[in-house]
């Protein structure tokens, strides 16, 4: 029987995502603060099924509301890097991006006792400098790219992308990419947003319909990757925390467990992926 790993991940943005969009009214702030109600419920749900998850948490969240972060830090979940603000790296200068990485890592170390091993870009949009800077500051894996569905790979640096020229791939780096997908993220499915530019994100999808999509992605992994695969789901506490969605999340956990899923943190899954690669390389020698 194959080994099929599931990583449940939570982007604990708190207020930072709204502030980065220029949404600072009392209503916007309250939407972010709702996660303080949800976090204890999430931690209890994960404990009920003996699951360790990964929380990608901006430094702004940690420094603004450490009481919202400590429930999952103290119960052994992985605390990973999600910037300090929730600004997209691609919108920042190299110096600004490095400041985000350093400041966010300092916030993580203060509450967890160690620097982050993993990173996820706010809104999943890396800059040309991101991979270099992440490696410089000791990050071992990234979870912002979408070049695979059920396998990790090594992130590239130095791609040449020009409109009227063939695409040229850069060199592989030691940074392990643990890919994600918007289709496995709760935010576009569920969150209703009226953005400052006037655009509307409708959200508010039926949770049971989304559940079927989420389960089918796991089932498909077991069929096309019978020996080994890793599947990552992304949730946001203030989004998944509504009652009917929490019930959906629990149903998801039950159905994945019944299908043979092994739940791990991202760091644990990375370790297993590396061990398998090393064993395969040794066997080939």
Automatic annotation (TrEMBL):
InterPro entries: Glyco_hydro/deAcase_b/a-brl, NODB_dom, PgdA-like. One of its GO terms (molecular function) is hydrolase activity, acting on carbon-nitrogen (but not peptide) bonds. GO terms for biological process: carbohydrate metabolic process. Residues 26-264 form the NodB homology domain. Pfam families: Polysacc_deac_1 (PF01522). Is involved in generating a small heat-stable compound (Nod), an acylated oligomer of N-acetylglucosamine, that stimulates mitosis in various plant protoplasts. Belongs to the polysaccharide deacetylase family. This is Chitooligosaccharide deacetylase. It comes from Enhydrobacter aerosaccus.
